[in-house]
Amino acid sequence: MAEGEPSCTEEGTEFSEFRCPGWSESQLRKYTFQTRPIPRLSHTDPRAEMLIDNEEPVVLTDTNLVYPALKWDTDFLQESIGDGDFSVYIAQTHKFLYYDEKKMANVENFTPKSRRVEMKFSEFVDKMHETEETGGEERLYLQQTLNDTVGRKIVVDFLGFNWKWINKQQAKRNWGPLTSNLLLIGMEGNVTPAHYDEQQNFFAQIKGYKRCILFPPDQFECLYPFPVHHPCDRQSQVDFENPDYEKFPNFKHVVGYETVVGPGDVLYIPMYWWHHIESLLNGGITITVNFWYKCCNEQAFMYPFKDLICCCWYHLLDLPWEDVLVPHVFCFLPMCHLVSLQRVSKQFQALIPVYLANCCSFDLSQAGPCIPKQMGLESINLIACRQLKDEAVCYLAKKCLKLKSLSVAVNTNISDVSVEVGAKNCPQMEHLDLTGCLREIMSPSGYQVKYSN
């Protein structure tokens, strides 16, 4: 910890009820929704590992991940960071709503709320100080990937990060490669509105204090993201400071998880968790470094489709079924979502069996991780899936422990193995339709099993 910087660590403190001496409640913006504290734990606490394993947020207070950088301030960086160009966003308000420049052509008359400018670090500092002195409305926010243009002192500090610890986190969870270290330098009061990222993130605070409000992925319907084709894709449309409940009624039900991070703290932001970040009011300049990691498992493809399934399903039905939906959309959805999709409308209820009937394969390595250990489905219809085999049915039987009815009729590859596994794992099973597979018998558990030759 840099000398003179207050520590936010309190040994044995589980939740962020302990307030750091470096900030006060008066520096926090007021919102209408409720929040719960994000746990603050030592990185050696087994509960911290459990939270990361479960992809739940946690503040780690003593990783020393960016210890060499805790001396960084604008004077040190101006002297040491080098003469490269830096991406600086300039806005006329305190809100910096992200936008994808490649998608700007998709929306007529789209005007971004901020603009990106390339400038030297010294120019950024001068312009920031000028804005502070004149009291202007304009705000600046530097967002630059640390690369090989930085000076020697920054490189030395970077190499001194606790790579042993963070590499262990990456390897233990089979994450993909480190994609970038993003340096963030913002003015006091800057706000990054709620959005989600498609990578795992260790958010390391270096200077100043930031308030972080997170929302789990299952609050998707409460946060109203922009359409996927919009430049602000992955961003919430709701103005937290002045929410329009008529336009966004579900926002009334949103509940956040909140913390304030200070120098030396590392916040784990799981992939697809929404996060709203703000530099504290009257708190001075803030400096942060992100550690972003790709996710290699199949779950990386789940959440973006929620936008299509839950919010834009009627647009999907406008697409040509044979040419687009079946080969280019449904083939990427996990089985649990295909089953759920049947409940969206009668049109989907008719379409999904058509897709399944033409399946050439059922890849358990892709579908498996997407099905919860104890899925709540009570009825599954897999009639006429030509290549359906016992291993797929057995897998579903082991996952769907509350299953009462399973229809796998007109599947010639199904044998009595499926019956045995179903009887063993699904004690509530009442009906198993194997018409077109074998013959009618009574199962050992007493539920009706229908076969025919």
UniProtKB/TrEMBL annotation:
GO cellular component, one term: cytoplasm
Matches recorded under SMART domains: JmjC
PANTHER family: HYPOXIA-INDUCIBLE FACTOR 1 ALPHA INHIBITOR-RELATED (PTHR12461), HYPOXIA-INDUCIBLE FACTOR 1-ALPHA INHIBITOR (PTHR12461:SF105)
Organism whose genome encodes this protein: Acipenser ruthenus (Sterlet sturgeon)
Matches recorded under InterPro entries: Cupin_8, F-box_dom, JmjC_dom, LRR_dom_sf, RmlC-like_jellyroll
JmjC domain segment(s): 138-308
Signal peptide: none
PROSITE patterns registered for this protein in UniProt: JMJC (PS51184)
Stored CDD domains: F-box_FBXL15
Gene Ontology molecular function: any one: [protein]-asparagine 3-dioxygenase activity
GO BP terms in the entry: negative regulation of Notch signaling pathway
Entry-linked Gene3D superfamilies: Jelly Rolls, Ribonuclease Inhibitor
Stored Pfam families: Cupin_8 (PF13621), F-box (PF00646)
Record-given protein name: Hypoxia-inducible factor 1-alpha inhibitor
